[in-house]
Design brief:
By secondary structure, the protein is an alpha/beta fold. The chain has helices at 50-63, 75-90, 105-111, 113-118, 133-149, 164-175, 183-204, 221-234, 249-265, 286-297, 320-342, 360-366, 399-422; strands spanning 19-24, 27-32, 38-42, 67-71, 97-101, 121-124, 152-158, 212-217, 238-241, 247-248, 271-272, 276-277, 306-309, 350-354, 369-372, 382-386, 389-394. Helices cover 45% and strands 18% of the residues. It is globular and about 80 Å long. It catalyses: (2E)-4-hydroxy-3-methylbut-2-enyl diphosphate + oxidized [flavodoxin] + H2O + 2 H(+) = 2-C-methyl-D-erythritol 2,4-cyclic diphosphate + reduced [flavodoxin].
Amino acid sequence: MNTAKPIAEATAQTSASRQAKVVWGGRIVTVGGGAPVRIQSMTNTDTVDVIGSAIQIKELAVAGSEMVRLTVNTPEAAQAVPHIRDQLDRMGIDVPLIGDFHYNGHRLLTDYPECAQALSKYRINPGNVGKGDKRDKQFGLMIEAAVKWNKAVRIGVNWGSLDQALLADLMDQNSRRDSPWGAKSVMYEALVTSALDSAQQAVEMGLDPNQIILSCKVSGVQDLISVYRELAKRCNYALHLGLTEAGMGTKGAVASAAALSVLLQEGIGDTIRVSLTPQPGESRTQEVVIAAEILQALGMRSFVPSVTACPGCGRTTSTTFQELTQRIEAFLRAQMPLWRSKYPGVEKMKVAVMGCIVNGPGESKHADIGISLPGTGEAPAAPVFIDGEKRMTLRGDAIAEEFQAVVENYVEKRFGATTVSQM
């Protein structure tokens, strides 16, 4: 008798955290508490440049960033924030803004109440709010502003700017252990303790614990996994994930994907950022695209229709399928700002662009719509499969244009009908 059990389907676990709400006007971005994992990013413009900052924030929001952080480091930057908010509102961009404060945030939030109101969330680094007796007072002033204006707060610890007094105390405690921990374990403990102690202090000052988001950012993949696993064990605050200083290009993208995917699969993390150093001339929106791809690859969210494409081999010496794949992916991404509202559900559509007869027809049948292009030596014909059935065969020099038109027609008929039925 066969006693084999069905192979369980792998799925990412759901976070069991509290839920914070990051609000601007009628826009409410829920973080944690069963909400979708949110994507955020950060500007690299000079905040004093109101127009330049507003334009970049709009680009990030359109690309899919659900919150955007910006540096607030000087009185001039604090004065610019309300004007940036006003420019965004005029453009119809209601993405919430996060103020990134270090060293002087207590003064800026106190001296510039318009800035404090225009922001939807404050990022506070416990290691950079002051030393000695000043620390509690200056941290308290920032929490008072958050309570007064009903704002969410991210207490963001970073291993490059740890609270040195706390670290020294933990190292002193460690020296008295019968079996002292390694230096890295002490650093992990300092990160977690700093975040949790600061959160507790904020709660004691009157901040709603549901409005607290924690982060403990490091730049090593295994370090990040270790720290967040422990942080998740010790609290149920919403957690922000991200490798700090992840790097440039493929290095930064791969490292971020490796670390975030492990944690998200385990149900750890409620909002993410992929902190990429942009290539010269590269759009800042690339980090948003990669964050979305991570969540979509894990099956946690859908943002754009997915395109399945073969890597190519000796059977596909033509570049036709590569060019068509690139063209279709760019086309789908460009259409999404319109399609997202016009065709609900289109982001879950699957498209296949395959290069030869080996896997082409099979993969195309598994997709909602797919095309199997001719490989080397094959007949110059490209069968198109729609909802698992062969519907037509494209030939000639205009296959790309014709297939794009087929995709547009499919989207309108399938997902447009959904819109009509909901009216």
